[in-house]
Structure formats: C-alpha cells, structure tokens
Amino acid sequence: MLMIFSYLSVPMPANVNMVMVKLNTIASFDYLPTDKIFGELFKFSTTVMPFVSFEAMGVESLRLTLYLGTIFFIWAYVFVLSLMFLISWPFKNRFSFVGRFHSMMRDKYYWRGIISMLLESFCDMSVGIMLSWRELRTLTPSDAFDLGLTCVATLIVIGGQIYVYFLLRKYANELDGEKFQKTYGSLTEGYFTTGVLGCQATRYMISWFLLRRFLTAVSVVYLGD
Description:
By secondary structure, the protein is mainly α. The chain has helices at residues 14-27, 34-41, 52-56, 64-68, 70-87, 96-108, 112-134, 141-170, 178-184, 197-222.
C-alpha cells in the first residue's frame, strides 16, 4: 500500500519517480508486458489522466483492465479454471484425473487461494475501480467490457468487506477451528486466532486492513489533487 502514496500530487525528483515506477511494478506483480498484450486484445477509447502524478507512475489510462495489468490475467486464469471445475463436476467420480483436478481446486483455490489473491490485489483493485468510475465509457466493445469488469470488481471490493466482517463475526470464537481454517484460513495468516487477541482484535484488524486500503484508494483518486 505504501506504493499507492506515490500517486499523490507530491513533487519528487525525476530519479525518484523512476525508482518508484520500478518498485510499483514489483509490488503490483505486473511482470508481463501487458501494454503490448492489451494493445492487441483491446481497443479502448482515449482517456485523459486526472493527475500528473499518475502519469509519472506509468498509468496512462482510466480503464480498470489496463490498470490491473498482470492481475487481470491471473483472475482470467482463475475464471477459466472455475469454468472447467463446474463443467467437469458431473465426471469427478468417473475419471481419476478429473477427481484429482477437483481435489487440487478445492485445496488450493476454493477458498484459501482465491482469498489470498484477493488480499494481495485488493489495493490495486480499489484504485483501479476508482479510476474507472471517474469516466465511464461505452464507445467501443472494449469500453463496454471494462465497464462490466468495473461493476464486478466493485461488487467484490465493497461486498467483500461486508462479507468478511460478518464472516469473522460469526466465527469470532472459532478462528483457530479446523472448519474455519480449512476454508478461510488465508484471512487470518499472521494473526492471533486464540485468546483475546484472536477473537475481537483479529476480527477488527482484518476488517480495518481492507477498509483502510479502500479509503486510501478513494483519497488518492478523488482527493489526490
């Protein structure tokens, strides 16, 4: 989240900007040449960045798809795996390799893996949807796709915070239980799950962890100037 503060309109030397751009690429897992790939896949209408600080950090468009970069492909990969999971569901007991695939998906993706990816990309998703909502467009099919993606991501970002709060409230005294850890254990990695610190404190800390990133995104995008 520290890298997000680089988007604030605070004057920095050019050499510092160059270093921050490189660090931001690492922090946001944007290792693929996404600019070239997106240039072949999508044709977005031209948008004007609201702040010079965003342009200095390499953000050239308000479109969520472009802002997410590599994260977009990670979620696309999970989406494809999920479709395969649903389509092959009736055959999981008929073929051993299908059964192994379902076991892998259940153990690594549903839900611990997906929760881990959401937590790691939550800040980028929050900033991305805030940028996209500043100037919604449907001039091209790519713009319409990005609008749909923005709506879905907004539901995940806002609805996810609400869901997590009530989920932790429900299991407040069972955070170290096998049932919770097997499914939602990624939420509490690095936190106390027993005693006073593992009940109320952990629940509030995780909820604040998500809310703080969301509010930071709002501040940077709408109050950055």
